Fold:
Amino acid sequence: MTSKKELITDSDDYSTDDMRKRRRSKIRDEIFDKSRKTQRSPNKTQSDDGKLNLLVKMVQGLTEDVKLVRIQQEQYNVEMLKIQKENAELRKENDKIKTENQEIKKEWTEIRHNLEVIDKENRKNNIVIQGMKIKTNETSTLIPQVENFMKDYLEVEVKVKDSFTLGTNLCLVKLENGKDKEKIMINKKKAGKNTHRKNLYK
Structure:
């Protein structure tokens, strides 16, 4: 049996032993912690390097994208300038065409007016004879026939400028001047008294 004397220990001895155990435990823990840190450090470094490489690649990719966008923007600007220049030339050409059209329209208006004046002037000295027996369609032969007809049936001597057949016993007569037409119109009343002559001209 163990004696009571053996069960009783000195408190100083207990405290010293306990402190030594704690110190050893602390040292062991510190060593273990250092070991764990030492083992994990390479993995953390590798992870950081991977992230850094990925970030570098992303930056490089963005840089290339920016360069591409700038190139495309420059090409777009060049194309836009080209289109703007073409549009300016087209507008200039359209303005020129509009001006030419206005000039042509003005010229045509003047020509039409002149033609109307000429036509009116020509018609002013024209008469139509009906009832005259037309012997020929040749102008050179018809003119003297008309002049003789005027002299014989209307009792007026006029100078015929031109004459055209319009149908059976119908012809258009162009006189030299308005005075000859006035002579004919004055003698028209005489034709009204003669049934044979009243429809000879108008």
In short: The chain has five helices and three strands.
